[in-house]
Specification:
The structure holds two protein chains of two kinds. By secondary structure, chain A is of the alpha+beta class. Chain A has helices at about 5-20, 80-95, 120-125, 125-140, 210-225, 240-250, 250-255, 260, 325-330, 360-365, 420-425; strands at about 25-45, 45-65, 65-75, 150-165, 170-190, 190-195, 195-205, 235-240, 285, 305-310, 315, 335-340, 345-350, 355, 370-375, 380, 390-395, 400, 405-410, 415-420, 425-430, 435, 440, 445-450. Chain A has two domains: about 5-220, PmbA/TldD superfamily (PmbA/TldD fold), CATH 3.30.2290; about 225-455, no CATH class. Residues about 1-15 of chain B have low confidence and may be disordered. Chain B is globular and about 70 Å long. Classes of the chains: A alpha+beta, B alpha+beta.
Chain lengths: ~450, ~475
Amino acid sequence: MALLENNKMIFLAENAVKAALKRGAHEAEAYVYEGQATNVGIELGQISKTSRIIDRGLGIRAVFSKATGFAYTNITDDSQTVEKVAEKALNSARASKPDPEWRELPQKKEYSSTKRTFDQRIVDLNSEDIVGIASTMLDAAGGVDKRVFPIDGGVGCGYISNAIANSNGVSGFDKGTIVECSIAALGKEGRSVTPVCFEFNVSREYNLDPEWVGREAAKLAVSAIKPKSIETRSAKVIFTQFALQELLGYTLVNAIKVDSVQRDQSPFKGKIGEKVASENLSIYDDGLFDGGLRTSILDGEGVPHQKTVVIEKGVLNNFLYDSYSAKKEGKESTGNASRAGYLSTPNIDTTNFHIIPGNKTSDEMLREVDDGFIVYYLQGAHSSNPVSGEFSVVATPAWRIERGEITYCSRGVMLAGNVFELLKNISIVGCNERQMGSLIAPWIMAENVRVIGK
Amino acid sequence: MFKSHCDPTFSRTFTLKDLLTKINNIATQQFQAQYSEARAQKLTKTMLNLKEKRVEAARQGIENGIAIRVLVNGAWGFASVGSVDMPILKTAVSDACKMAKLASARLKAPIKLASSKVIQDRVVAKPQKNPSEISIEEKIKTALTISKSSLGFDKRVKSCGIDYMDLTGNSYFMNSEGTCIEQDKLYVWARITASARSNNIFTFSREEIGSTFGYEIFDEYAPEDLGKKVAQRAIQQLAAKSPKGGKFPVVIGSNVVGVFVHEAFGHLAEADLALSGGLLTSNMNKKLGSDLITFYDDGTIDGSFGAFKYDDEGVASSKTLLIKDGVVTGLMHNRETAQKFNTEPTGNARAEDFRVEPIIRMRCTYMAPRDRTFEELFEGVKFGYYFKSYRGGQASLDGTFQVGIQEGYEIVNGEIGAPVRNASISGNTLETLHKVDAVGKDFALDPGRCGKGQIAFICDGGPHIRLSEVVVGGIA
């Protein structure tokens, strides 16, 4: 299946909008998605799997008397099916009760430009190149220590494009590329097996360092081989990006989405302008961040992406809005309508959730800790209470820091507390920023974290 | 269903069976694939998301596509396209074969497949109430009833969210060995969440139902009762206290046993993960737990959310014994791992849809009941906890697990006491399996969805059991 040009994508979207309007929709929107992903997979230490997935589809949102319906299909080249999908979207709307708070689909606005989100070299990568990257990574991991076993991982490259059109004249298109490589390794000595240690590289442009990825994952696995147990205490804890993504993803991210606020499910309700975190913490949601993994000119309903200040020096500044939730409050969308492909309607989500870096390097941060821990991977964060922020998670594993140095690892250590209290106890924000999914963040150190040992 | 003439997508030049045969022939004849399989699916879905009394958007979907998987020189090639056009499929199968061949160059241990019975069958779903024949109005009405009952339960209930999904369709499987299976797919699922607030205390509650029978599940679980149950739990937690952190004797309900069996043990018993350095490969036929524990993964419980007749490699589903009286007896296999372990495939290879390849997944995973009454489990516990319902669970390959609790109580002198909130249990799976010192005679299963890169519909459960001690997390 050849990739579709932007005019063809926009044509499909506009055509679907027309089909819905013709059938009686008062307003209509169509979203067209195309993605192509090529992957090489590592299993049991060898490259044994390859795949190519091509997925294209469209979703139609139809509005009838202030009620919204949605239907989708992946059969885009058949006009009868598109008509049928428009009909289903409209039927869904007709079956739903009108929503008195519905205003309208977004109006047309100018898009800003983005940088470093598309790289033709990624589209042109052939299978040999991809197998080569995987081999390099695998060899690097295997070369670190005999006790390390790379078990899982791979290399993937992808192309994604979206087009959106609506009956208010919105008509937009964006395309981008992404390439990533990752490896999961564990250390084994005798009968003792470490937790899985994971590293990766991901980028919108073709600049991976597979050797670094292999080496780092292996080093972590080696450092986890001889665990010791620890006593329960309150301590300084450095959270790496892996841990932050888990911990904040189920709590803080939920609290700043305005739909949670409007539904009385956010502890930040009514707290704009108030101090909600340590003054060391500033967070922007930046959909235009150069080379950001979620960077695009437009959001899932065709609203331009922007930079939104969420927390500035600890003070809550703004929530994240899509067009519906914004119009409810007489405001403008912040461009945070997100889509999980063509199968879903837009939902409020972060774009690039950017924790603004401070000025301490990772070594400097470690040196600040006389007696504490550093955590990479957490388990169980999804069972945190999303409303109150209470959490109780297992570090898999936690590494002990003594007098500024990482000395040993400890398994089965639990961390418990409240994320929103933890935000107030952040003493250092590092400068070692990296991207992981929606998160762009450095390491963060918090004081007085409850660490439960055995 | 696929051959219907009014369906423009599947009636072009070939019937679907011809098309899949052609794909397999291209792979084996033109590219010397040792093995080739092709899956075609046509699925329709309805999804609803309600927040309070507002339907966010009733969603309906039509999708179809083809997945091709080939084994060339011992390496896998996979391709998926949302198209039934022969030229596109030809490119896809040739890409899959070429990529597999390239990857095979560095293989130290080429992949082989355990043999599997050649099957020709047609599996028909027989719902009393077929969700595809129920109007979207009716589905919205059901969801609204749940929501009203939840919000109306107490004025401290601040929100109620309902996610509903049904999926119906047809799945066609053919491989180069002659297996040819046409199987109906039917799933109905709903998740209800509620939150409550009083002063500065927020609480949260969740309930999930699911079936492969049909929409009649709402006759078994009346919408009013579902809403009430979720609301009641959220309200009850408002008055709950935080548990003490530390080791305590704990009684856990079927729902928590299920997630423990699934997360803490089940994933370790998936043969692909066991091979990836999990704990079980070196522990087969060894005693890893109390005499009281027997675990199954069972794909044959009719109507359960994890049930199906054939998996996505065309292997018949089965009732697989994982642990018998504390001894590890079996793992869950696909054809590739079964060959590595020199055993039979168990029918655990599942693909979420045609976009992805089949991987080893659980079906209905549970602990078998024994002989204790509910009261007996609490006898002699001076202080401990009763954890009735879970919020979420997770485990890693080294055997560390964590299960968050959404409904829990203290046990004081053998009696159920005050409610506790935001508790969790954690520990090492193998150590914990030895701590099971009493197993109840009750039994219940709960539906769920499990993520392993792809989503699978599963079930888990068991009886109530007692653990002599386990680490309880809390903030006291």
